[in-house]
TrEMBL record:
It is found in: Cytoplasm. Keywords: Cytoplasm, Methyltransferase, rRNA processing, S-adenosyl-L-methionine, Transferase. Belongs to the RNA methyltransferase RsmE family. The lineage of its organism: Bacteria, Pseudomonadati, Bacteroidota, Cytophagia, Cytophagales. Specifically methylates the N3 position of the uracil ring of uridine 1498 (m3U1498) in 16S rRNA. Acts on the fully assembled 30S ribosomal subunit. SUPFAM superfamilies: alpha/beta knot (SSF75217), PUA domain-like (SSF88697). InterPro entries: Alpha/beta_knot_MTases, PUA-like_sf, RsmE, RsmE_MTase_dom, tRNA_m1G_MTases_N. This is Ribosomal RNA small subunit methyltransferase E. It comes from Ravibacter arvi. Residues 71-232 form the Ribosomal RNA small subunit methyltransferase E methyltransferase domain. The keyword Transferase applies.
Length: 236
């Protein structure tokens, strides 16, 4: 029998959030004695027994801590958000389902700044990430960063492979899944509608970012981010 997965930042409390309680009471018609899994969103999971449930409160008794597979590498996607919230939200949902460890919505020269005041809402993004994590049967929530300037990100890129999705005019950039190194962390920069400026590309490559292609066709921003995440996993 299928046992549903729930999220609790502190599983040791033995209590689910009101939103999770409502879901288990109304949608799943849960009853005391029901078996469930609870993750803290940090890669850990416990098997538990539901001990009490109402639409506002659900409690559980932890039974055992489960051994969970953890990837030996991290996938980081830095992307300039689009001007339509539904496209950013769809992108985030799919990135979480594929397995992304960090997503940064970055400011670039061609990024519309209204995207950060009107389009990218942290609370809603976090709810979408939790839902996608549970739906895809994962136990780790990605770190979501909003409003980082591309120059700041380039200055402190972190360890591992560094890529910028950008194909020079001479069309010499290798395909991402062939350029990625096995079992190494990866950070991929995805440009906005209008792409990166030549100055941004120069700054990135000077900092060690390698230009890569995501395929022979021109992709929308959100599609490019998803393709990059998948390419890294395929390379591993």
């Amino acid at each position: 029998m299928y046992s549903p997965l729930f999220f609790s930042p502190s599983p040791s409390s033995g209590e689910l959030s009101e939103a999770e309680a409502y879901h288990i009471a109304r949608a799943l018609r849960g009853r005391p004695g029901m078996e469930l899994f609870v993750t803290d969103g940090k890669g850990n999971c416990i098997k538990a027994l539901l001990t009490g449930v109402t639409p506002k409160k659900a409690t559980f008794e932890p039974l055992e801590t489960l051994s969970v597979y953890k990837r030996p590498y991290r996938v980081r996607i830095a992307v300039a958000p689009t001007r339509k919230p539904e496209r950013n939200e769809w992108m985030l949902e799919k990135l979480v389902e594929l397995g992304v460890d960090e997503i940064s919505f970055i400011k670039t020269t061609h990024t519309h700044l209204e995207s950060f005041s009107r389009v990218v809402n942290r609370d809603r993004m976090e709810k979408i990430a939790v839902s996608a994590m549970k739906q895809s049967g994962q136990f780790a929530l990605p770190e979501i960063k909003i409003g980082t300037n591309i120059s700041e990100l380039i200055a402190l890129p972190g360890k591992g492979d560094l890529f910028i999705a950008y194909v020079p005019e001479q069309n010499t950039a290798p395909v991402l899944h062939q350029a990625a190194t096995e079992s190494t962390d990866a950070l991929v920069l995805i440009g906005p509608e209008g792409d990166f400026t030549p100055e941004e590309v120069t700054a990135a490559t000077s900092a060690g970012f390698q230009p890569v292609s995501l395929g022979p066709t021109r992709l929308r921003t959100e599609t490019a981010a998803i393709a990059a995440c998948l390419a890294i996993h395929l390379a591993r």
